[in-house]
Amino acid sequence: MKKSVGVFLTILVLASGACLAKESAISLLWPQDKPALKLTFGKFQQIAVLAGQSTFVCDVVVENLTDKLVPHASFTVYGTDKNNVRIGEGLLIISDLNPQQQVKARLQFTSVGVPTSLTLSAKKDMLLAPGAKTIPLRVLSVPPGTKLKVDGQDAGTTPVIVKLTIGSHNLDLTKEGYAPGTTPIEITPDELPGGSITVELGGLSRDTVELRDGTVLLGDVLSMSLTSVVVSVEGKEQTLERNQVKKMMLVERQVTQQPVVTQPAPAETQLKH
Q: Which domains does the chain have, with CATH numbers?
């Protein structure tokens, strides 16, 4: 099946003066010059706090303002503080939105503070030809909660339902502390809805050391002190200052003690006279 490629768009829309802490809804139009979609964000609810980062969720009502089908739209939602500094982001994906139709979606948003405004950035997606057939597929993972990319594009966190066109696709799954998983999948024209696929991620075999400059080292952490970390990467030891290290993930290792083998004492030789 042939696919039509739409123009790559990157359009920012600013919700001026909107605060996530407020209970009033936040409405954004995309694009601003000739709006095709209206996105209304409900109340953001904080569901978790980890390492200084807060996770929020909210319901988003997306309305198609045109008389044409919107087959697929992906937005990165950015949050900024009162100084217009970006402090958080989330991913919103919409599929098969009919003319003048409204659909409710759930957005998960991670931030290091409470944003005072929102911006939208349309992702560089391939737009499907109008009427292109899509098949919903439920993607599961072991463990759950892995980040999924379909053909290089973010598609949410497992378990998640994605809509795939007829043809070949690649699924990439990643989760901190586990080895990444990749699997190809073929969607045939006679594929029935309701299918699912489960991808199991393997554990990392080496320690992971992430530095503050973004560098990631895979190796074996040999020792740690208040001032330094010694890590062996491909057989070469490196000594890092503790201030260079952003975080470490250490692989659990089983230490097996070799049993002590006691050699039997030599038998006494009896001499016959």
A: 7-128 (2.60.40), 133-203 (2.60.40.1120), 207-249 (2.30.30.100)
SS3 content of the chain, % helix, strand, coil (to 5): 0, 55, 45
End-to-end CA distance of the chain: 101
pLDDT in tens, 3-14: 333 333 333 343
**pTM of this structure:** 0.43
In whole angstroms, give the CA distance from residue 220 to residue 24.
51
Mean pLDDT for 53-58 is 82
pLDDT value of position 132: 59
Q: Does the structure show a pLDDT above 90 at 24?
A: no
As a whole number of angstroms, the distance between CA 27 and CA 39 comes to: 6
